Sequence to fold (231 residues):
Amino acid sequence: MKKLKSLFEKNKHWAATIQKANPQFFPTLAAQQAPEYLWIGCADSRVPANEIVDLLPGELFVHRNVSNLVVHSDMNCLSVIQYAVDVLKVKDIMVVGHYGCGGVVASMEDARHGLIDNWLSHIRDVYYNHRKFLGQWEAKPHQVDRLCELNVIEQALNVCNTTTVIDAWARGQELNVHGWIYGLGDGLLRDLGFTVSGTEEIRSTFNDAVELIEAKGETVEGHSCTQFCNH
Fold:
């Protein structure tokens, strides 16, 4: 409990610092929530959404899970998307992966990891969709980087194909879906060339983004790891 007590102390210091800088921050924050962005990212503790894009609480709506997956049977993720689009009226949804994602690596390992293997099977599906490009899996750094990128593009595609997003576009709502990736080694975000603003753009944008990734070949953008995302 002593260790947990330190977190309460850190919270007090953080709140005092914010209030000193802006006395109206918390009252204003409590009164409304009006973010313009939805961030769908990895649960990795090294990828804090708000800090990466330097936004304060209330400016970014966030959903995180292992390896930033958007699965059409995941009611948690789908509910977040529906609330963000239909209620908060966000204008941009960013699917953000990161290089060296342990979930991506684990999805391709022969060893069993327990319950999480069911979740990671969705990444294995991404690998098989692009096996002609990725080749025989050897967990080489360039393979891990490329699969991390392709996983982002596939999940951004899944966002575009949700009923919530399709319905929003059908009624003329301004909404953009992006695919980004984060470098743990340098703290920088990279645009993967996937930005869709309507149903008519989905397939061509997806194909173009995949071609951009394939053009990188064996260029290593980040650093791979062999542990789960939060290690």
Q: What stands out?
A: Residues 98 and 182 are 4 Å apart (CA to CA). Residues 220-231 have pLDDT under 50 and may be disordered. The two ends are 23 Å apart (CA to CA).
